[in-house]
Amino acid sequence: MRFIGYFILLALIGYGLWPYYSVYRLDDAITANDTAELAQMVDLPAIRANYKKRVAAGVQGVLPTDDPDSVVSWIRQNLERLGDSALEQAITIDWVRETLRGAVTEATGQSPPYLLAGIDFAFFESYNRFLIRIGKLGEGATHVRFSLVGSDWKITDIIP
């Protein structure tokens, strides 16, 4: 019985350390010029979807949709369609790398960006979501959200 308890404890410790190892791998991936390693750690459709939600919330505040047949509704629909194609062109693996490098350089002032030096906070949001904050809270910090996708921790949102 004691063996089962130790095994469960060891499994919990391993699960708790798993996303930190992914952050360590991310540090190596953003300093390397090869995007293949970084591409394995990023879920681009999820990042685009999260950005689309934030943009749509902003458009909703500026262009309300009271009447679906109005000109304002037509403009809003076209902005959403244009926004989708713009997000696909703008949010790429290179964008992810440059955003993370820029955030680390801004937080630490280091010329070759070392992600681990710029992290001010890293902990679980829930059992399948992990958040890191690059920089100090309230000073233009960048938040990077990892989610457990399949059997890997992947970046699913970046909030500059």
Features:
6 helices, four-stranded antiparallel β-sheet, 160 residues, single chain
Give the topology.
Blueprint (H helix, E strand, L loop, with lengths): L1 H30 L3 H6 L3 H19 L8 H20 L2 H16 L6 H4 E8 L2 E6 L7 E8 L2 E8 L1
Antiparallel strand pairs: 1-2, 2-3, 3-4
Could you give the distance between the termini? Answer: 48 Å
Task: Write down the secondary-structure element order.
Answer: HHHHHHEEEE
| Low-pLDDT residue spans | none
Indicate how many domains the architecture comprises.
1
Counting H and I runs of at least 4 residues, what is the number of helices?
A: 6
For the largest beta-sheet, the strand count, sense and barrel status come to: 4 strands, antiparallel
The amount of beta strand, in percent, is 15-25%
Tell me the strand order in the biggest sheet.
1-2-3-4
Description:
By secondary structure, the protein is of the alpha+beta class. It has one domain (2-159). Helices cover 59% and strands 19% of the residues. It is built from six helices and four strands. Strands 1-2-3-4 form a four-stranded antiparallel β-sheet. The longest helix has 30 residues, at 2-31. It starts with a helix and ends with a strand. The model has no long low-confidence stretch (mean pLDDT 86).
Summarize this, please?
By secondary structure, this protein is α+β, with helices and mostly antiparallel strands.
